UniProtKB/TrEMBL annotation:
Residues 46-113 form the Protein YjdM C-terminal domain. This is Zinc ribbon domain-containing protein YjdM. The lineage of its organism: Bacteria, Bacillati, Bacillota, Bacilli, Bacillales. Residues 3-32 form the Protein YjdM N-terminal domain. PANTHER family: PROTEIN YJDM, PROTEIN YJDM-RELATED. Pfam families: YjdM (PF03831), Zn_Ribbon_YjdM (PF08274). Belongs to the YjdM family. It comes from the Bacteria. Coiled coil: none annotated. It comes from Ornithinibacillus salinisoli.
Length: 113
């Protein structure tokens, strides 16, 4: 018996075959072996406001004043952010800003230096 791959969404090992699909009972994700290999090869490309491709470790500059949610602080236009990390989600940049700490930014409000 062949061993089935773990779920690409939640990493559950309890997947099972249902016809031509592989199903995860924990999160309900359905996938095929072909789609699983395609997704691992093609990751989402994140681009800055000018269309330049961003990668982990890049330095970016903030393009406009950004209000910090839950605080009266503001990230000023022109602030340099070093060593960004790309993550999945709405706010696709994870970084540390001097004086403010850990933040999540949207790539549409930064440009690559």
């Amino acid at each position: 018996m062949d061993t089935l791959p773990s779920c690409p969404k939640c990493s559950s090992a309890y997947t099972y075959e249902d016809g031509s699909l592989i199903v995860c009972p924990e999160c309900g994700h359905e996938f095929t072996l072909e789609a699983d290999t395609e997704n691992s090869e093609q990751s989402k490309v994140i681009k800055d406001a000018n269309g330049n491709e961003l990668t982990d470790g890049d330095t970016v500059t903030v393009l406009k004043d950004l209000k910090v949610k839950g605080s009266s602080s503001v990230i000023k236009m022109g602030t340099k952010v070093k060593g960004i990390r790309l993550v999945e989600g709405d706010h696709d940049i994870d970084c540390k800003i001097l004086g403010l700490g850990a933040m999540k930014l949207k790539s549409e409000f930064v440009k690559k230096v």
